[in-house]
Amino acid sequence: MTFEEIIGQVVSSVHSQKNTLTDGQLTCSYQEMPTVFEGIDKYFAEIKIGIENNLALECVNSVPGALTLLYLLKKGYSFVLLPPVCHSGKELGFKPLIPKFCQYRLMIESSLNNELVECNRYPEKFLRIERNEQCNCEQDNREDNARGKLYLRTSGSMGASKIVMHSHAKLLGNVLNCVKRFGLEGDDRITIPVPIFHMYGLGAAFLPGIVVGASIDLQENSNIIRYIERERQFNQNVAFLTPTLCEMLLKGLKTSRAYKRVVTAGDRIKEDTFSSFESRFGCLLNLYGSTEMGAIATYDPDDPIDVRAISAGKPLPGVQMRLNEKTSETGEEITAVGELCCKHEYGFEGYVDGNGKMISQGVSSQYDWFKTGDLGRIQQDGYIEVLGRCDHSVNRSGFLVLFSEIEQAMETIESTERVVVVARGETKRGQEIVAFCVPTQGTTPSGTKIRKACFDVLPKYAIPDNVCVVNSLPTLPNGKVDRQALVEMASNDHARCQKTCC
């Protein structure tokens, strides 16, 4: 099936009148969507935009943004999905420059207060279109096999951002995987406070909700206060959150609420936080994936909580996993640790440069394995355990020291709420280990005090060289900790760190 066929089925289904897409300002039923699409059709015709054109859509979590995105998928356009300009700068890890292979830039008016009927008749009220003056005109006559593509940027959390190319067909396969594993249905009410210009918000949350015709609440720049306000209005039973928002809900909500499903992705959630959240809010599922591969693995909702709290679950249909190479052995049964590699039927087609030229292949053949860059284990029963990034480790005195193990151990110290470890520079023993600690509420520990406590929970070779106490950790729009920003902080702002001698 195609997006056009699925959207056509959804708008004619029994749910089309009662189920809606909302952002807190505008609300659109599925039955009203074709009228909006017709308006965009006419608008594109006036400007002479055709299926042969590549577009760049700066998308926000709003009804107009979502409808424009669905229109492009339905019509089979090739387009780059980008954050709006207001998200630019260090917050994203890259500048949202319009690639040269895009002929037009589409911008969404996110603070639209007009009635939906105005959007239906006059899409120019919410959709602003500009020709890209930097466009490489040679791309106007590209071949048909370059059509029907979705381009996404990686988060840039670990270096320069890349442009990833997906086909619409494989994206849909990924979406259907998520529908089945999460058990989504047309009667669900799904809230999405994560950006839909990232693969998690788009491929795991928004499009799966559209495919089943569920009611969807899109939240832009959400925080705990806005989330609670919208919760009272929307009454959701499914939520796609970041680990940070999960922790904020656990602390900020005094009452409990029974969700059918809460999905999270990105950085890990501590075991005690995982258990506490589930006891109050219902089934919690962590999704393991990437911009390149989409949804790779997650749990079955029926898996026991002790399994879901420590692993990334099992691979989704069409996904194979293996270890690239063994780096160490642990436990009595000797479980190998190495870089996780993925072969995915619905994975990406490759990376492209700013001119749209392929710079490396993705998973175009059955023999290709994608190196995720994540260090992990594959248990004998098929469950995947992600230990952290491969470059989130150092060798000390002949021992492999994983940052994730340092973080987990330090989070058992009474005064520490959250710990993230990075490496910088060089010492006599190798790279310098710097731990950034968010203190437990109501405490004011010093870096020196926390480091002394490390000797009780860590072997000597794993003790951080520096401990920095911070009020909060910088994050990217997808909810992941911005480790690049922490490395810069450790390198350039020593005043914030309390340095101690080894």
How many strands appear in the DSSP assignment? 28
CATH architecture of the largest domain: 3-Layer(aba) Sandwich
How would you write the strand order of the largest sheet? 2-1-10-9-11-12-13-14-15
> What do the pLDDT scores average to?
83
The CATH homologous superfamily of the largest domain is named ANL, N-terminal domain
Q: Structural class of the helices, strands and pairings? A: alpha/beta
Q: How would you describe the shape?
A: globular
Structure in words:
Strand 3 (about 55-60), helix 3 and strand 4 form a beta-alpha-beta unit. Mean pLDDT is about 85; it is low at about 85-95, about 140-145, about 325-335 and about 495-500. This protein folds into 2 domains: about 5-385, Rossmann fold (3-Layer(aba) Sandwich), CATH 3.40.50.12780; about 395-500, ANL, C-terminal domain (GMP Synthetase, Chain A, domain 3, 2-Layer Sandwich), CATH 3.30.300. Helix 1 (about 5-10) packs across helix 3 (about 65-75), helix 5 (about 170-180) packs across helix 6 (about 200-210) and helix 8 crosses helix 9 (about 270-280). The strands form 5 sheets. Strands 2-1-10-9-11-12-13-14-15 form a 9-stranded mixed β-sheet, with helices on both faces. An 8-stranded mixed β-sheet has the order 6-5-3-4-7-8-19-20. Strands 16, 17, 18, 21 and 22 form a 5-stranded antiparallel β-sheet that branches. It contains 13 helices and 28 strands. With about 500 residues, it is an alpha/beta fold.
